[in-house]
Write a structure and sequence with these properties.
The complex is a heterodimer of chains A (225) and B (233). Chain A is mainly alpha-helical and 225 residues long. Chain A has nine helices and no strands. Chain A has one domain. In chain A, 82% of the residues lie in helices and 0% in strands. Chain B has one domain. In chain B, helix 1 packs antiparallel against helix 6 (186-232) and helix 2 crosses helix 5. Classes of the chains: A mainly alpha (225), B mainly alpha (233). The interface between A and B is medium-sized, with 32 and 30 residues.
């Protein structure tokens, strides 16, 4: 089997078991939804200032909901020691990492695709930017988050306090990503020129590149017996 | 036992050196360096603030190097170095984060500003607190060292990106307070250098001590294992 076929098999396995129960996806969706509703109590939803913080709110919701999925992705493999089964596969260890990244990416993108329109409707937000650019930013932002998140989730899955530990070690590391994602989303929402958005897209691009390379190089060390 | 005594002698020498240089630095900070014309005496905080910041960054760099060498060689020594350096780095970053607002309040009229340097220091503090918590929650010592080394690398790689992104972020938003440089008199520069030297000695002294504690801890653990084996046989 080639490397890509191996990754495909791993992704297929994860998605298949997820879509049988839809456990993670439904929890992530409801959680993202809840975060937004809680925010509407924290800020006055009819106020003008809300327009300014709206890009921030949606990214906070995405990231919080994403953490739920990341936490499960390796902890679930610990049950019945399936992680050892995966490690025994005649495949490169990094295939496991890329497989999990793609699964988490798919789950998060589905969650975002459903919840973003709902958020916009709920807050009666007048959207005046380009949809294509927005999709690009969401793709870049989510990819970076999932790339480093999956890696650190593999790390914390082997510790005593895995679920608590992941946000603590993940949030400080994703600061540049959050800044880039929120700023570019905000700029797109108010219909800024491409030249205004481009620096932030660069931040996201560089971040994605670095944090897919570093885990790729270090992943072998995470899954040692 | 012999190596123990030898180690102790080295760290004692280093300890006395640190004491001596720190005393000189203290004298220089309070007597030798002139009072800053605009800021007054509060500016003397600068010598400790900057020195602590430099040593904190240096300590985190040592964590990074120690982590890489640990993953290559798997020697407990380098893991101990990384652990000790991370803890000292967090302590020095805490000093920076405490002295900063004390200095900023009378000068900038604000305790805190989301300036790139300040914010990066805060994020740095969070990253290495996370490093320590990660260590504490892994069970076996081998796992502990391996995970910590991996995170030590990831965390350090992240720091320049954090700094750059925050700098861009702040240039877009209106800056409330201008950072601005100071014109340092030659005596001030000398004082700063001695102060940094003092902090460097303190850093290495603490590093040696902390590594020693970890080595002794492992020895105690091994002895306990031995005893347990004897008990059950």
């Amino acid at each position: 089997m080639t490397f890509f076929k191996q990754i495909k098999a791993l992704v297929w396995k994860d998605l298949k078991s997820e879509f049988r129960t839809k456990e993670m996806l439904s929890s992530m969706l409801i959680f993202a939804f809840l975060v937004i509703v809680i925010f509407s109590f924290a800020f006055d939803p009819t106020d003008e200032t809300l327009k300014e913080v709206f890009p921030g709110i949606i990214w906070v919701a995405f990231i919080f909901a994403g953490i739920l999925g990341l936490n499960r992705s390796f902890v679930a493999e610990k049950q019945n020691n399936s992680i050892h089964g995966l490690m025994l596969c005649p495949a490169d260890r990094s295939a496991i990492y890329f497989g999990k990244v793609i699964t988490n990416l798919v789950l998060m993108l589905i969650m975002e695709a459903i919840s973003l329109p709902i958020f916009i409707i709920l807050f009666d937000y007048s959207f005046s930017g380009s949809i294509l650019k927005l999709i690009l930013v969401i793709l870049l932002g989510t990819f970076g988050f999932v790339a480093i998140g999956t890696f650190l989730a593999a790390l914390t899955a082997n510790t005593r306090t895995s679920e608590v530990l992941l946000p603590i070690i993940l949030f400080p590391v994703i600061v540049p990503l959050v800044i880039g994602a929120v700023e570019s989303t905000g700029a797109i929402f108010i219909g800024e020129e491409m030249s205004e958005i481009l620096p932030w897209l660069k931040v996201l691009g560089i971040y994605d590149l670095i944090f897919i390379t570093v885990p790729f190089m270090l992943f072998d060390f995470v899954l040692e017996v | 036992m012999e190596t123990f005594d030898k180690d102790n002698r080295y760290s004692n020498i280093l300890g006395w050196l640190a004491f001596l240089v720190t005393s000189v630095a203290l004298y220089m900070v309070f007597e030798y360096a002139p009072t800053e014309r605009v800021m007054g005496h509060i500016q003397r905080l600068f010598y400790f603030h900057v020195a602590a910041a430099w040593i904190a960054f240096f300590a985190f760099f040592v964590v990074f190097v120690g982590s890489i060498i640990y993953l290559k060689k798997r020697s407990t020594f380098w893991d101990n170095i990384a652990l000790a350096s991370a803890e000292i780095g967090v302590a020095f970053t805490t000093i920076v984060l405490i002295t900063g607002p004390i200095w900023a309040r009378p000068i900038w009229n604000a305790w805190w500003t989301w300036d790139p340097r300040l914010t990066t220091t805060l994020i740095l503090w969070f990253i290495y607190i996370a490093y320590i918590i990660l260590r504490a929650s892994a069970d076996e010592s081998e796992k502990k060292a391996r995970f910590a080394a991996i995170f030590g690398i990831v965390g350090f790689v992240d720091v320049p990106i954090v700094f750059m992104s925050i700098r861009w972020w702040r240039t877009i938003h209106p800056q409330v307070i201008e950072g601005g440089g100071m014109n340092l008199a030659p005596t001030m520069v000398q004082t700063l250098l001695v102060s940094i030297a003092a902090f460097t000695f303190i850093y290495f002294y603490l590093l040696l001590r902390r590594v020693k504690v970890e080595v002794l801890k492992n020895q105690v653990k091994e002895m306990k294992e031995e005893l347990r084996k004897l008990q059950y046989n």
